[in-house]
Amino acid sequence: MTVLHTLDRFLDRLYGWCGYVSAGLLVLLAGLVTTSIVSRLFSVFIPGITEYSGYTMAAASFLAFAYTFRENGHIRVAILLGALHGRRRWALQLWCLAAATIIAGYFAYYIVKMAHVSWKLGDRSEGADATLLWIPQAVTAFGAAILAICIAHHLIRFVFATEPAAADSEIEAPPEP
């Protein structure tokens, strides 16, 4: 069990680090947008700044997904789950986590495949910057893969929870206004 416990702790730390990197990318995004605004005020053209802002936003979003999922920040079916108890609640939670694992895995597979194809073909952006597209796509693909791993991790934790209370605590009630 110590190997599984170590893996569990490693994955939780990985999700946290992805959240930190995402926060840093959001600060970078704010800097890029500010630079873009200021440069336009002074009629200075900076090639690719709009594209880099988009790449940064996509990377920040995808890297934040796993952290947000771990922290119960995504919209979930908590209202319906709160109305159910016992075996029905467990079955619905199992179904939701299994469906989310399949969907996230499918999405991660294809976004990784897209980045790989872009790398093989040497695709470049059509903007003035002519960035190799596999570079920003790789960060986005990494975030999508970590999300798929995170959801599968939660599914495995849920299925192998030793106590029903531990499984019930997987989905917390939404905060009160």
Explain what this protein looks like in three dimensions.
This protein has about 180 residues and is mainly alpha-helical. It contains six helices and no strands. α1 (about 1-40) packs antiparallel against α5 (about 135-160) and α2 (about 50-70) packs parallel to α5. The longest helix has about 40 residues, at about 1-40. It starts with a helix and ends in a 9-residue tail after the last helix.
Task: Please outline the helices and strands.
Elements: H1 2-41, H2 49-70, H3 78-83, H4 86-121, H5 134-159, H6 164-168
Helix pairs in contact: 1-2, 1-5, 2-5, 4-5
Short summary of the structure?
The chain is an all-alpha fold and 177 residues long. It contains six helices and no strands.
**Low-pLDDT segments:** 163-168, 170-177
Helix content: over 70%
- Find the count of extended strands (DSSP E, 2+ residues): 0
| Measured distance between first and last alpha carbons | 40 Å
The major sheet is characterized as: none
Indicate the mean pLDDT.
86
Indicate the radius of gyration in whole angstroms: 20 Å
How many helices? The count is 6
Structural class: mainly alpha
Query: What overall geometry do the principal axes of the alpha carbons give?
Result: elongated
Binned strand content: under 5%
Q: Which H/E pattern describes the elements?
A: HHHHHH
